[in-house]
């Protein structure tokens, strides 16, 4: 899938993503953590976290809702961008940071990150594709390896608010 087709899919889902983020933020994480994404090929009970990172060019803080999995005690997020040929901006911003903010339901923390390699990457990818099967289609539609980011909590922080997202 080219960038134009992926952009069309993202545009169609933009309202849904904004609504999801608003629900997660205004509820303090009591709503929005688990969503039914079966309508788009996912599972009925799919877990979502929020990530907060600083723009590598703008210096602004950004919050994004993402599907996540827990693998060996680390939180895993996937830089799929719907199978686009370019990486998502949040992933590029993470590459420029040592830590990011993460919120899972009603708990938030600062986390360090790493990318799994080799055999571990293969196992983590299989696990995430099981949690959200469309990742397989996304990978088939682009030549770039879709990034996996593993997050390790370091210290608690305040949950994110709607003000943090502006």
Automatic annotation (TrEMBL):
Keywords, sorted A to Z: Oxidoreductase
InterPro entries: F420H2_quin_Rdtase, Split_barrel_FMN-bd
One Pfam match: F420H2_quin_red
Coiled-coil ranges (or none): none
UniProt-recorded Gene Ontology molecular function terms: coenzyme F420 binding; oxidoreductase activity
Catalytic activity field: oxidized coenzyme F420-(gamma-L-Glu)(n) + a quinol + H(+) = reduced coenzyme F420-(gamma-L-Glu)(n) + a quinone
Any one GO CC term of the record: plasma membrane
Superkingdom of origin organism: Bacteria
Family: Belongs to the F420H(2)-dependent quinone reductase family.
Name this protein carries in UniProt: Nitroreductase
Species of provenance: Mycobacterium triplex
């Amino acid at each position: 899938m080219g960038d134009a087709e992926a952009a069309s899919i993202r545009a169609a889902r933009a309202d849904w993503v904004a609504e999801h983020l608003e629900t997660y933020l205004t509820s303090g994480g009591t709503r929005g953590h688990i969503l039914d994404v079966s309508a788009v090929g996912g599972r009925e009970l799919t877990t979502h976290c929020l990530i907060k990172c600083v723009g590598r060019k703008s210096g602004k803080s950004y919050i994004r809702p993402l599907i996540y999995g827990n693998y060996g005690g680390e939180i895993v997020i996937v830089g799929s961008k719907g199978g686009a040929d370019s990486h998502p901006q949040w992933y590029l911003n993470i590459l420029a940071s040592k830590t990011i903010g993460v919120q899972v339901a009603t708990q938030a923390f600062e986390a360090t990150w790493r990318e799994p390699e080799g055999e571990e990457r293969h196992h983590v990818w299989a696990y995430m594709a099981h949690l959200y099967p469309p990742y397989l289609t996304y990978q088939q539609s682009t030549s770039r390896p879709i990034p996996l980011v593993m997050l390790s909590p370091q210290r608690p922080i305040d949950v994110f608010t709607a003000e943090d997202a502006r």
